[in-house]
Amino acid sequence: MSREPDPAVLYPDVVAHGSLAAALQAAADDQGMFLPLAVTPSDPLRHATIHSVVPHRHSSYVTAWHHKRRWSLRGASNNRVMICGNTADLYGLPRVIRGWAEGAPLEEIGQAASFDLLTGRFEVPDNNPADVTASEWQCMRKDAATVGWPQYQALIETAHAEPKLRRLYPYTNHWALGFAAPDLPYNTPAFVSIEPPRGTGDYTIRQWWNGPALHHVPTPAEAVAIAVGRIPADLLQGSSDAPASNA
Length: 247
Prior knowledge:
Blueprint: H1 7-10, H2 12-17, H3 20-29, E1 37-39, E2 47-50, E3 57-64, E4 71-77, E5 80-87, H4 93-101, H5 106-112, H6 129-146, H7 150-161, H8 163-166, E6 169-173, E7 176-180, E8 193-195, E9 203-206, E10 215-217, H9 220-229, H10 233-236
Antiparallel strand pairs: 1-2, 2-3, 3-4, 4-5, 6-7, 8-9, 9-10
Helix pairs in contact: 4-5, 6-7, 7-9
Protein name: DUF6193 family natural product biosynthesis protein
Pfam family, one: DUF6193
């Protein structure tokens, strides 16, 4: 097991400023900006907290990697990650931090970043369940398009195209796709889990992600049809179709 380098080895400039927050502010000073940052007392050289004027933007911070000179930036809105990315360019972070802190639109923040940052979600300040669900689908579709797994992407797109599934909150567990009630996504009993194949093979249907296999089918369309047939009646009654996406 490799020993973790001393922060002074990877981040001598940060050490010289006394904290990551101070180093980021120094980089911002060179660009004529002020950043609302706070030092994290438990790890001041590798962690800084971002404060936003937007109430629902929280749990936002910059962290330094332990074994490589690199930083990660993360910003959440109503407990859902909206921006998340990694960069080796300290001077590229202030523009993103300021935009997030001052309430700039996500698209504008993404354009200011020199690295891939947007998760695909759109913000839902009022936590409306239908919009939260649509936001989650948008994130899932973006992710599926970038992972290089055609069978997984086909499953996500096929499920999204089915109105009865699109109105449900999507989630994955070990890459297996499941669905929940939009207003109670973390308290909905599992009723179906679809595991995509890697390469050749079938889509596997279970009740929950590591439960016994119930069906093996060759196409995502067949898997989605089985999933629709397993939707509990109480999830079908009284629900309206959620927006497809903001894309």
